[in-house]
Design the sequence.
């Protein structure tokens, strides 16, 4: 999806190449280590599903810089399919960044809950295994602040 939907800053500035932007950002901010974290969220609205993928360039102890892409698709009525599409988009984004020579994302954040009482739990184990099998560390709802919180805000905006 990176090639068809443009990443932006929260100021609205479009980024012609997310990978070039990240490489430049990392080069300009060498004084502190930067962790890349990727997450995607979605929400159904009327006849469409809105997805948002967020890439955070996080400097521990100093905050993060976020860029995002947001797009609509025809409404996905099957919740499990929509949730796994979020996972797929995050993995694809992380893979495309690595293939372009960016530092490997430290985490892929999933908007899924390991607690069986929540609806997203029915795809949790398969999604977690998918991310880990691609070589990325995974975080999910019970582990504290997540990039998917920003993605959630964007799909509701």
Sequence:
């Amino acid at each position: 999806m990176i090639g068809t939907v443009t990443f932006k800053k929260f100021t609205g500035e479009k980024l012609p190449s997310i990978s070039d932007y990240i490489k430049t950002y990392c080069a300009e901010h060498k004084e502190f280590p930067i962790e890349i974290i990727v997450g995607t969220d979605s929400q159904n609205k009327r006849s469409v599903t809105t997805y948002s993928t967020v890439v955070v360039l996080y400097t521990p102890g100093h905050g993060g810089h976020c860029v995002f892409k947001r797009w609509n698709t025809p409404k996905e009525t099957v919740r499990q399919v929509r949730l796994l599409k979020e996972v797929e988009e995050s993995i694809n984004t992380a893979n495309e960044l690595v293939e372009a020579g960016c530092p490997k994302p430290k985490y892929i954040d999933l908007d899924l809950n390991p607690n069986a009482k929540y609806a997203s739990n029915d795809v949790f184990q398969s999604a977690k295994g998918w991310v880990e099998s691609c070589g990325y560390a995974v975080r999910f709802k019970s582990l504290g602040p997540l990039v998917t919180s920003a993605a959630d805000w964007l799909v509701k905006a």
